[in-house]
Design brief:
Layout lengths: L1 H5 L3 H76 L7 H16 L3 E11 L4 E12 L1 H13 L4 E11 L6 E12 L1
Antiparallel strand pairs: 1-2, 2-4, 3-4
Helix pairs in contact: 3-4
Length: 186
């Protein structure tokens, strides 16, 4: 390399040394900038990983919230189906309840007497209960058929109370006062 420099005149040597110094300074500057950029890239990479983890957590949270929302929507649909299929219509509850009871009595072959109806508002007036009390006379098999028909009835109709008025006057004959309840919702 010295032989190569010996072939150059003074002006060319100065130009070559200035060019070498500039290239050396440029390479030092490039090395300094690349080290600084490498540090910045590592910092940005760690921030990116943190943001990706945050995004995954938010995405999972969003999916969980969507599932929960869908669950509430499904519950709302089920409640609407319950209202439509199992509760009585508040405007026609008495008429519908009487028809349902007549169907139950006809299906079981039971004659009832002394039917009384009562109306009670529940749960801040959004749910109402209609009670029906009647007197039943018959044997145990007839009572069992009646209770089975009430239990199988598609609407919310249940036996609230059975009062035994007379047992044993005639063998196998029961004299009862039965209280049923039907519900409607506004």
């Amino acid at each position: 390399m010295n032989e190569l420099f010996s072939l150059l005149n003074m002006k060319e040597r100065r130009t070559a040394s200035i060019l070498g110094a500039v290239l050396g300074a440029a390479s030092c500057l490039f090395l300094f900038v690349s080290i600084k950029q490498h540090g910045t890239a590592n910092r940005v990479l760690s921030e990116l990983k943190t943001l990706e983890l945050d995004y995954k957590a938010l995405s999972q949270s969003r999916n969980d919230i969507k599932k929960e929302w869908q669950g509430w929507q499904d519950a709302l649909k089920k409640m609407e189906a319950l209202r439509a299929n199992y509760f009585y219509d508040s405007k026609k509850i008495m008429q519908t309840l009487r028809l349902d009871l007549q169907q139950i009595f006809d299906a079981t072959g039971i004659q009832v007497t002394d039917i009384n109806y009562g109306y009670l508002k529940l749960v801040k007036e959004s749910l109402q209960r209609v009670t029906v009390e009647f007197r039943f006379s018959g044997n145990y098999a007839m009572l069992k058929r009646l209770l089975d028909a009430i239990e199988r009835h598609p609407r919310f109709l249940h036996v609230e109370k059975i009062d035994f008025l007379s047992i044993g006057k005639q063998p196998g004959l029961l004299d009862l006062r039965i209280s049923l309840a039907g519900y409607d919702e506004d």
